[in-house]
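[stage:ingest] chain + small molecule (iron/sulfur cluster)
[stage:ingest] validated
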Amino acid sequence: MTEPLQIHQPRSGSEGHSDIFDCVQCGYCSAYCKVSFISEDSPRKVIRFLQQDDIDKAVKSSFVTLCKQCQTCTWMCPQGIDVAGIMRHLVRHHFINY
Ligand code: SF4
Ligand code: SF4
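[stage:predict] done
[stage:export] tokens:
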């Protein structure tokens, strides 16, 4: 049985958050992510899949298993989104369910 994936969490305090609907698709996270240059996907694209409620596409993206958890995307996001935390959540979901 597939474990439900809870990604959309509203802001709370000044810590990085995982409100994917705050993402404006600026692409800063992807521009600074070294892994996005060797994958057809990127953090920006994966977040877009989530905004479109295409959880399957996000979880199955080869990109999430390539993520090195360097945190650069989280540091660079002007919207304060914990992009690396979202990738960590997705990769866990990927290995549990696929
Ligand atoms: S944490 Fe992952 S997605 Fe973010 S910049 Fe690093 S490798 Fe890329
Ligand atoms: S840097 Fe932040 S706002 Fe820009 S595309 Fe990435 S997650 Fe979205």
